[in-house]
Amino acid sequence: MRGSIPSPGPETARYGGNTPCIEVRAGDETFIFDLGTGVRELGAAAQGPLDAHIFVSHYHYDHLQGLPFFGPIFDPRSRFTIRGPTRNGRSVKDVLSGHMQQPFFPVTAEMVFRARCEYHGFEAGDRLKVNGVTVSAIEANHPGGNLAYRIDYKGRSIVYATDTEHGNDRDAQLIEFSRGVDVLIYDAMYTEDEYLGRNGSPKTGWGHSTWQNAVHMADEAKVGTLVLFHHDPVRTDDALDALVKLVKKQRKASLAAKEGLVIKL
């Protein structure tokens, strides 16, 4: 999925131009991570009400933009438990409600949401267990804060680590957090040349990582499959194809996230 801003058009159609949203199904439970514009497609595919746990990594626009267009949240038969961190003294409910206010949006969440919604805080170090599924979180390295999530179910595991920048002590924490997981979904927005400013302006301090570091993290954590995530919105599908070829030379069990991609464990 693309990062920062939606990027529709013929040059991004194969991998998709929507901003972050992933769905995880484990047993009878459905989990949704982030509410980027991709959640609109998720809701449309449901073709009816949903009962799901929603976890928000952080509150930058590209991770919330899809919420006002998420069809099932307007269906009174749907039920959602929405969790996210408290930031600047504001709870997940406060932030999401504030996202839909005039003059930024014509209607408020309180006016139009019809699903049964519960809101709960979820912070780094927290752990939720529901019907055999465990969801845990740690703090990643991103301006304003960001949670990386791990999902464990019956010996299978996934880490969702979007919007994280390498280069401090949180690298080691994330490696341990991801140790041995089947799938690591990791921010690989830039190449090393782009990140360091060898090609354009430097991107250090922006809160995003490189495909080279994604490979390093996956190898150090001994994960199964590495999924490159949060693609630069200006990177075309052809450029992503070329990037994936480079990645696979260093780590064969790697792929780039694309809309509609399904990984079964």
How is this fold's topology laid out?
Layout: E1 22-26, E2 29-33, H1 38-46, E3 51-55, E4 79-84, H2 92-99, H3 109-112, E5 116-121, E6 127-130, E7 133-139, E8 147-153, E9 156-161, H4 170-177, E10 183-187, H5 192-196, H6 211-221, E11 225-229, H7 237-250, E12 254-256
Parallel strand pairs: 2-3, 3-4, 4-5, 9-10, 10-11, 11-12
Antiparallel strand pairs: 1-2, 6-7, 7-8, 8-9
What labels would you give this structure?
Metallo-beta-lactamase, Chain A, five-stranded mixed beta sheet, globular, alpha/beta, 7 helices
CATH architecture: 4-Layer Sandwich
Number of domains: 1
In what range is the share of β-strand residues? 15-25%
Task: Tell me the major beta sheet.
Answer: 7 strands, mixed
DSSP helical segment count: 7
Which homologous superfamily in CATH is the superfamily? Ribonuclease Z/Hydroxyacylglutathione hydrolase-like
Percent helix range: 10-25%
CATH C-level name: Alpha Beta
**Sequence of strands across the biggest β-sheet:** 6-7-8-9-10-11-12
Order of helices and strands: EEHEEHHEEEEEHEHHEHE
Average pLDDT for all residues? 96
Distance between the termini: 20 Å
**Radius of gyration over all CA atoms, rounded:** 18 Å
Please tally the β strands and state the result.
12
Report the CATH topology name. Metallo-beta-lactamase, Chain A
Give the overall form: globular
Which residue ranges are poorly predicted, with pLDDT under 50 across at least 5 consecutive positions?
none
**Helix/strand structural class:** alpha/beta
